[in-house]
Amino acid sequence: MSPSAPTPSAPTPSPTALLASALEKRLAIIADRAWYERxxxxxxxxxxxxxGRITDFSAQxxxxxxxQLKHYLERCxxxxxxxxxxxxxxxxxxxxxxxxAH
Length: 102
Prior knowledge:
The chain has one domain (about 15-100). It contains six helices and no strands. It has helices at about 15-30, 35-40, 40-60, 65-75, 80-85, 95-100. Helix 1 runs antiparallel to helix 3, helix 1 packs across helix 5 and helix 4 (about 65-75) packs antiparallel against helix 5 (about 80-85). The longest helix has 20 residues, at about 40-60.
């Protein structure tokens, strides 16, 4: 009987992917109004937990961090940070164009 080949492990997600996932989780928690109404303390605890993960993953981003993303994260503009990471438009404009609009 021959030894089996090692099972390949799944690739470790990048800090950017982990950050995007945490930002999406934050939105899902915020949107869960039934949870908030049923268990406000548990809801707040979940929000605080995901906020900590957002902070941790933000600190792990490879340098240089895009200035616009850094701006959003420093100001806790998490919806904008997620839009930036996913390339989704903000108010009909791509994230980078919106940043330069006055």
